[in-house]
Amino acid sequence: MSSTLIVILLIIAFLVAIILAVLDGIKYTTSDMDKDASNYAQVIRESKGPVTGFLWVSYAAMLIFTIVYLISHWSEFIRAFGG
User: Fold this and answer.
1) Greater confidence, 42 or 78?
2) In DSSP terms, which residues pair with 45 in a beta bridge?
3) For residue 3, which of 13, 39, 48, 64 sits 20 to 30 Å off, Cα-Cα?
4) What is the average pLDDT across 54-76?
5) β-strands 44-47, 37-40: how paired?
6) Contacts of 20 by beta carbon, 8 Å cutoff, 6+ apart
7) pTM for this model (two decimals)
């Protein structure tokens, strides 16, 4: 894969991440977060909102990367564990 293609794919990935983060901020506003938040000793604040689209896409990307990595390096894992 050429370095130009890698740079283009990274730019596209960052743009998609920014768009998803902005759209999720529109759907679940800070006032919604304040309404759903719990305070712990006025130090820690936890919000129990929905899982955003940005997180779903991030989870999917990590899962795909993990599967591709394991498939491409399977022989190394077999050798390392004596198989």
Assistant:
1) 78
2) 39
3) 64
4) 92
5) antiparallel
6) 52, 53, 54, 57
7) 0.64
User: CB under 8 Å to 48, separation ≥6 — which residues?
Assistant: 36, 37, 38
What's the CA gap between 33 and 47, in Å, rounded?
6
Per-domain residue ranges of the chain: 3-80
Q: Is the pLDDT of residue 71 over 70?
A: yes
Q: What angle, rounded to 10 degrees, do the helices at 53-72 and 3-27 form? A: 150
Q: What is the DSSP letter of 40?
A: E
Rounded Cα distance between 77 and 66, Å, is 14
End-to-end CA distance of the chain: 31
Residue 37 neighbours by CB under 8 Å, 6+ apart: 45, 46, 47, 48
